[in-house]
Amino acid sequence: DVKVTQSSRYLVKRTGEKVFLECVQDMDHENMFWYRQDPGLGLRLIYFSYDVKMKEKGDIPEGYSVSREKKERFSLILESASTNQTSMYLCASSSLAGYGETQYFGPGTRLLVL
Amino acid sequence: LAKTTQPISMDSYEGQEVNITCSHNNIATNDYITWYQQFPSQGPRFIIQGYKTKVTNEVASLFIPADRKSSTLSLPRVSLSDTAVYYCLVGRGEYGNKLVFGAGTILRVKS
Predict the structure, then answer these.
(1) Do B42 and A45 lie within an 8 Å CB cutoff?
(2) Upper half-sphere CA count for residue B44 (Cβ side, 13 Å)
(3) Across residues A63-80, what is the average pLDDT?
(4) Any CB–CB contact under 8 A between B51 and chain A?
């Protein structure tokens, strides 16, 4: 079974702090994704990566950055946390298997910024 | 990217068959249709995927008409544990082509 793990299930940070969210997958997948999920808005893509050291902006990249130094690990960084970044953050991975990719999701990190 | 439209919510009773329809009028030739299920406080989970006609697995069936402008997820004999949010996605998912999640359909199964 594919396993995607995230470093924390719950996190509380203060405004202005730098926040690191880590995601690790164990299936040698090429693609990795970071989403945030807010009530009524579904999942919105922040960033994705299709290879080590490669990244692409998603729909809402402002205020975030990412790092992918190893194939299995994809980090989301909130450079200076703000209260409007309080959300559920979901990481996903998929293989570059041509058409019909399936994304596998981690359990999510619920972040509260005070 | 193909935009999808689903009902916001649906109610059903245990043992019934539930059909959730998704509209995707501007689906591209190479796009696949994928459905995910999400329980509270968990990440979405893949249910089923198809390109045309009908696909069936141990969990659900997916019906796609010839014009592919819509699709219907069919859950046979639902139980309380099928209460979740169901997302319809359309896309190729290949390099550089991201999938887009809509707001999903909240399915509530009652006893």
Answers:
(1) no
(2) 34
(3) 97
(4) yes
How are strands ordered across the β-sheet holding A73-78? A4-6, A19-25, A73-78, A64-70
User: What pLDDT is stored for residue B93 in this prediction?
Assistant: 55
8 A C-beta contact, residue A13 and residue A81: yes
Residues of A in contact with B100 (CB under 8 A): 45, 59
Q: Which of B46, B94, B96 lies closest to A98 in CB terms?
A: B94
> Are the C-beta atoms of B93 and A94 separated by less than 8 Å?
yes
- Quick one: which H or E segment has residue B55? strand B53-56
- Give me the pLDDT at residue A84, please: 96
The answer to whether B104 faces chain A, any CB pair under 8 Å, is yes
pLDDT, position B28: 85
pLDDT average, residue stretch A94-103:
68
- The answer to whether the Cα torsion of B54, B30, A37, A32 is positive or negative is positive
Q: Identify the pLDDT of residue A12.
A: 97
Residue A58 CA to residue A69 CA, distance in Å, equals 19
Q: Which residues of chain B have pLDDT under 50?
A: 96
DSSP-derived letter for residue A63 is T
Query: Which runs of consecutive H residues, i.e. helices, occur in A1-114?
Result: none
